[in-house]
Write a structure and sequence with these properties.
Blueprint (H helix, E strand, L loop, with lengths): L16 H5 L20 E2 L21 E2 L22 H10 L3 H6 L6 H9 L4 H12 L8 H13 L3 H13 L6 H13 L3 H13 L6 H13 L3 H12 L27 H4 L3 H4 L6 H4 L15 H13 L3 H14 L5 H13 L3 H13 L6 H13 L3 H13 L6 H13 L3 H13 L9 H10 L3 H14 L4 H13 L3 H9 L10 H13 L3 H10 L9 H13 L3 H13 L6 H13 L3 H13 L6 H13 L3 H13 L6 H13 L3 H12 L7 H13 L3 H13 L5 H13 L3 H13 L6 H13 L3 H13 L6 H13 L4 H13 L4 H12 L3 H12 L7 H13 L3 H13 L6 H14 L2 H12 L7 H13 L3 H16 L7 H6 L7
Antiparallel strand pairs: 1-2
Length: 985
């Protein structure tokens, strides 16, 4: 045996989870196809099972009916126990594992046979130790170099990705006259392929061909697997078919088009550019081609593979390529030739069916697998767990997880990663914690790559303490890699949880391990998301002191962050520093600074950065020009905007909708109708036509010019297409209102409300203002309540509308002035008092009382204006007892009643028919204890009328006339009744 397979650790994150759950050629040992158990024939579907309820979703080829009474199909049992060595080998191996002095350990042994030497080499996992052991073996005078020893050493060096050491070993092998065999090439293709160096792996086959060695089946299977894993499906299939007819044709394979999985071109330890010119390809014994290249079968027939592993690879190849019929044909051929099936065969087919949407076929395969005496392994259940999760059947996925232990198997690291990913993605906290508890009981640790996934789940649910405890608990068992720390910090950064991100960033780590630059970059991102720009800048300045230098991404992120926060001076400084450090800023970075300057109206500075960008050789894109054109458009500088539009054309950049829309905006600013119309018609010829911004700009231009029909034409078109937004509606309301077309304005306002476009303060304000203008005060009050219900805080514009409502609604001038004064001075609960007054004034008493309760529960001292509003609200709603209680509470707080208090009390007394109370207020007014006030006189008159004492109302009315005309008044008997000295309020 000369080729083995093992799990790769996989990359962090979801994209690699699928490959971990299913990789059929991993953990597989290539061996002879012969076995001990068999069964006659193979029929996946009995006659009862031929009708598949999924109908059209069944892929042709997997309804296999292979009836054979002559072919015996054995299956392999992969549960091989590790070989136990006898003699001195166990003690030698233990001593080498525990000690550092390899040479002394080996010198103390008797002379070792070549077979014992091979065993000792194979058992070494450390590349340093295997080199020392190999040097010791070669140091004996009677040592005869052999290819088996070199193969073992080359494999260990390749797995450790020690390419320089591998090169030296290969050179030495050639110098010692040891010829590479099929085993050697298969192993080299395998280690290079698993390292992601696909190009170099294939070049070994070219080397093999030039040396006259034809690949055997194991080598062929290795090449096909490497190409398959690189997703070069057609080349993998072609290589296999060529091999079957005795050819190895790689001459027209474009290696530049083959993507290395582990490295970018030029950064790999062994690059394609230099591979052919190194000793690796120049040396290695050549043997006579007549002997080694005799690859044809004596009977002239095509060669057929005989190893189970080869068929498993081919089935997986066609499945991943989406060629389901080809996969089925390979399986049928496997049955026909009597090639043994194993667990991996079924796992491959199950995954192939399930991943192409045919879960019922996958389930049928599992049943037949068990019927044929081939036991599912943990990987089988991992595949089903993943398939059920992808199908949204979480119960079935969890059932697969539970069944692993039930059938006597044990969940592996892939199982735990998969089930945690599935549950965390759906925020199933209780189930996740149950799985983690089971892992602890079985002694399994949460895989490092699952930690960010669990923390994201807790963060999504706001359970930050649990996230912190989970991380701390893991840190007791294991140290986090830099990559995992970055992932965790990023989870917190995305949610604006900078303090939690900071705890991970500054958290304990192994002594001597400095923070990676990517950790700094993502922490800068966390500060930026939270708008903590000072902290981000401080972190950036201090990172060099801790041995980590900023890279290009660090500078780009900081510049874009500061630009986004309108801190353009800091962004400009860092841009300058970045260039001094030898880094070339991206176009996006220059664009962020230019856009910030344009947004702030600092257009000369924006132009400076643009010119600097061109000077250092960074080509501006349409976003850069769009920012400049939009900036000049906002200021109405049409000439400058058009100048950059022409430069954009000179650079060969086509104008997009955004740029043309900005120019329309520029023409709108200066009222240039013809220029705007020409551009708007031009946009109509572009794909998608005018966007909402362009259309709204045209509506706004027409509105400013009073062109109703033209504006309405565009607005109606937007409505029909369902594209009208809040700006469209608001502009039309503005147009109609300004032209006195109030009915049309109200119709637009009502439609805007019904369309669900009231989503922010500005849109609510516009509609409420339209209602107020038309005298629809109740509708305005209802809209205000809806706004508050949606937790949209009123702004200055909202309060402006509310004060207009109060004045139009008949609230006394003194009351409006008092409330407005409290609001402007920012007194406690003054804003709530204004809202309550509006509800009471328009007659929405339930809303008023609900609002009133808010400030009555306050634990801070209230102003008299707030008490006045409460008295007014309770009085208007008919709850006179509560109104009077508020008055008494006001006195308890040592707040003297003012003019507004008396006005509100008069209203309460009138509604309740409390004439004595009215007499007291009137008496104070008459005897000048209260300064004569027209509003108070009117309040008393209205109160008497409300109490049905029209005679007294008339008398007070006459008194008001005399009081303000300066005339004397002769008291009548009725007046004396009113003038009775009051006992005091």
């Amino acid at each position: 045996m000369h080729c083995s397979y093992s799990y790769n650790s996989g990359e962090l994150g979801r994209e690699n989870l699928q490959s971990l759950i299913f990789s059929p050629c991993k953990l597989q040992t290539l061996q002879s196809f012969c076995g001990t158990r068999g069964f006659l024939g193979f029929n996946l579907h009995s006659q009862k099972q031929r009708i598949n309820p999924r109908g059209a979703r069944v892929f042709p080829g997997f309804k296999l009916q292979c009836h054979s009474t002559t072919v015996v199909l054995p299956h392999k049992n992969l549960s091989r126990k590790r070989k136990k060595y006898g003699g001195v080998l166990p003690s030698i191996l233990r001593a080498l594992e525990s000690g550092n002095n390899v040479e002394d350990t080996l010198n103390s042994c008797r002379k070792l046979s070549p077979k014992e030497q091979t065993v000792i080499l194979k058992e070494q996992s450390s590349w340093e130790r295997i080199l020392r052991v190999f040097e010791w073996i070669k140091s004996h005078e009677d040592y005869v170099p052999n290819v088996i020893h070199y193969n073992v050493v080359l494999r260990v060096l390749g797995r450790a990705q020690k390419w320089d050491e591998l090169r030296l070993c290969w050179i030495e092998m050639a110098k010692n006259g040891v010829l590479p065999t099929n085993n050697t090439y298969s192993m080299l293709v395998d280690v290079y392929g698993k390292a992601g160096l696909v190009k170099e792996a294939i070049l070994w086959i070219k080397h093999m061909k030039l040396r006259g060695v034809f690949p055997d089946e194991v080598t062929m299977n290795t090449v096909v697997r490497v190409l398959k894993d690189a997703r070069e499906f057609d080349w993998a299939d072609r290589f296999y078919k060529d091999w079957c007819v005795g050819k190895v044709e790689l001459g027209d394979l474009d290696l530049e088009s083959v993507a290395d999985l582990g490295y970018e071109m030029g950064s790999a330890p062994v690059s394609l550019k230099h591979f052919l010119s190194t000793e690796l390809f120049k040396i290695g014994g050549r043997r006579p081609i007549s002997k080694t290249m005799d690859s044809s079968n004596t009977d002239g027939s095509a060669r057929k593979p005989r190893l189970t592993a080869t068929y498993n690879t081919l089935i997986d190849l066609h499945g991943k390529a989406g060629r389901m019929k080809d996969a089925a044909d390979v399986f049928a051929e496997m049955l026909k030739l009597g090639v043994a099936m194993d667990t991996i065969t079924f796992n491959t087919m199950i995954h192939t069916c399930g991943s192409h949407g045919d879960l019922s076929e996958a389930e049928a395969l599992l049943t037949k697998m068990e019927e044929r005496g081939i036991s599912p392994d943990t990987k089988t259940y991992n595949i089903f767990l993943s398939l059920y999760a992808d199908a949204g059947n979480i119960d079935a996925a969890l059932k697969c997880y539970r069944k692993i232990r039930k059938v006597g198997l044990f969940p592996d690291v892939v199982t735990h990663r998969a089930v945690l990913h599935v549950l965390c993605e759906r925020n199933m906290i209780e189930e996740v914690e149950t799985v983690i508890a089971e892992m602890k009981r079985s002694g399994a640790l949460v895989h490092e790559h699952s930690i960010p996934v669990v923390i994201r789940m807790y963060a999504n649910e706001g359970l930050l303490d649990k996230a912190k405890h989970f991380l701390e608990e893991h840190l007791l068992d294991d140290e986090l890699s830099s990559k995992t720390r970055v992932a965790i910090i990023d989870v917190y950064a995305e949610k604006g949880l900078w303090a939690e991100a900071e705890n991970v960033f500054f958290g304990k780590r192994d002594s001597g391990r400095k923070k990676d630059v990517v950790e700094y970059n993502v922490m800068v991102k966390a500060y930026g998301k939270a708008k903590l720009y000072d902290k981000a800048f401080s972190l950036f300045k201090g990172m060099r002191n801790h041995g980590t230098w900023p890279n290009e991404s660090t500078y780009n992120s900081l510049i874009q962050m500061f630009s986004g926060g309108d801190l353009v001076d800091q962004a400009r400084d860092i841009l300058t520093e970045m260039q001094k450090m030898g880094f070339k800023p991206q176009c996006l970075t220059f664009c962020a600074v230019i856009a910030c300057y344009a947004r702030l109206g600092q257009l000369p500075d924006a132009v400076d950065v643009y010119e600097e960008m061109v000077r250092v050789g960074v080509k501006p894109n349409e976003v850069v020009y769009g920012s400049l054109i939009n900036g000049f458009s906002e200021t109405g500088n049409v000439e400058e905007a058009l100048g950059y539009f022409r430069k954009m054309d000179e650079f060969g950049i086509s104008a997009n909708q955004i740029v043309l829309t900005s120019l329309i905006k520029a023409y709108s600013k200066v009222g240039c109708l013809e220029g705007a119309k020409t551009l708007y018609e031009g946009i109509k010829d572009l794909e998608g036509g005018p966007d909402i911004v362009a259309s709204n700009s045209m509506i706004n231009l027409y509105a400013d010019l009073g062109l109703v029909s033209e504006a309405k034409l565009i607005f109606d078109d937007l409505r029909q297409k369902g594209r009208a937004d809040g700006v469209s509606f608001a502009t039309m309301m503005y147009l109609y209102k300004n032209l006195g077309m109030l009915d049309e304005a109200i119709d637009v306002a009502d439609e805007m409300k019904l369309s669900g476009l009231l989503s922010d303060c500005a849109s609510f304000n516009k509609v409420m203002a339209c209602y107020v203008t038309n005298g629809q005060l109740i509708a305005c009050g209802e809209l205000l309540h809806e706004m508050i219900t949606q937790r949209i805080l009123p702004d200055t514009g909202t309060f402006k509308v509310m004060f207009t409502v109060l004045k139009k609604g008949g609230l006394s001038t003194e009351a409006v002035t008092q409330i407005e004064s409290s609001y402007r001075e920012g007194k406690p609960y003054a804003r709530q008092a204004v809202i309550t007054s509006v509800f009471s004034t328009v007659g929405l008493h339930a809303f008023a009382l609900e609002s009133c309760e808010t400030f009555l529960k306050a634990e801070v001292a209230l102003d008299s204006s707030v008490y006045n509003v409460a008295i007014y609200a309770y009085g208007m709603s008919g709850k006179i007892d509560k109104a009077l209680k508020m008055f008494m509470k006001m006195q308890d707080e040592d707040l003297e009643p003012d003019l507004v208090t008396y006005i509100n009390l008069a209203g309460c007394y009138g509604k309740a028919g409390m004439l004595e109370g009215l007499k007291r207020i009137y008496s104070q007014l008459k005897y000048r204890e209260i300064e004569p006030n027209e509003s108070l006189f009117k309040a008393i008159i209205d109160a008497y009328r409300s109490a049905k004492r029209h005679d007294l109302a008339e008398l007070v009315s006459q008194e008001m006339k005399f009081a303000f005309d300066g005339k004397q008044y002769v008291h009548s008997e009725s007046e004396h009744e009113l003038d009775e000295p009051p006992p005091g309020l």
